[in-house]
Amino acid sequence: MDELWPPPSPEVADAIRSLCQSLMSETDAMIDALTPPTLVAHNDPALLADASLAEEGRELNRSDLVQWLTANVQQPGRRVEPYVGPRATAYINDLVSRGIAPDFVGAWRVALGMGWRRWLEECAAQFPDRGLLVDVLDVSAKSLVQYALDSVLALREASLAAARGNADAEAIALIQLIAGGAPMAQDLAEGRLHYRLGRWHTGLVLWIDDPRHVDALELAVAAVSTPAPERSTLVARASTASRWLWLSGADVPDPYRVEQAMAAAPGVRGAVGRPGRGLEGFRSSHQDALAAQALVVRLASDRQFTAYADVELIDALTKDRAGARRFVVNTLGPLAGADPALRQALLTYLQCGFNTTRAAAALYVHRNTVERRVSRANELSAVKVEDNPAHLAAALLVLDIAPGVLATASH
């Protein structure tokens, strides 16, 4: 790329290199702070609603940050060429196929503002010499601003290339319209999708955290879609890392058949919505599945399969991580840090309707063991079973889904 300003002095170059090397160890924390506001700045609800796309957006942000820092370690203060690698290209293809047109300018404006503020703080802390500070800021501002301009241009070019090569956009766009609640004639939608809508539907999202597991994702989709009498399946390629599915039939499909089918698909995760009937059921079950996926991703849970009906209350409780942590700590007290077997016994006991025999069968232990563990757990808990079992069950389930929630006080 053409250089647009003179190279920095050796002293300034060494200062920029040292600072970039220091920040390389903090990229994850910086991206955690940058990603939510930049996603909002894209100004597209569909992007915010899909946890897989949001995660790919986070990876794009991380790639951009690492590219600039690395380049400034190697050639401090020079113009940095954007890198749109295979994963970023796949992400942009996914956006185009879904009809999502992100505001790259708006997102970069937000990222640049936040990144520059952090750079200013680090420079002020590291360089007490006024002359050196001014020179470092002058050169790094040119590099950073030009990098933002070049990156926006590269992303736009990649989007145009994806639009020219996309053959499935119409079908994906139609599914998005239906799922998003747009008015739609049922017979028209059925004709275009080759899928009957006037029946019961169960919406699913299958996804992978690592793009290298895409073959396993396809195998899981095939396993879940295995034909059955009076059943049909609709599959949509939501992104490189995720698939949307709908299972339909004359009666309610069993969502836990999916969990069994996925058991042999390591690396693939699934979320299922509550069944619904007709066009509205098609929409609502899909929205449930997306909400369950977003919950799992938001809480960094390692669950392979999640049914939204099981976690709807938890979804509402954990929109605010700090609030969720307070709720768990205030409800469970010392039980929050006790033996997990005690919490599991108490949660199972509550889920089994206070039936010790059923809880023992679910846990594969003797009922006397359940009684001892439940009694001890109730002693440790701040809120007692007899006082507020609903709050107690909710707090236990939050901790069961996201054990790390107690370690997020500083986030």
TrEMBL record:
Domain CdaR GGDEF-like: 191-294
Keywords: DNA-binding
Domain PucR C-terminal helix-turn-helix: residue ranges: 342-395
Domain of life, source organism: Bacteria
Gene Ontology molecular-function annotations: DNA binding
Protein family per UniProt: Belongs to the CdaR family.
Protein name: DNA-binding PucR family transcriptional regulator
Organism: Kitasatospora cineracea
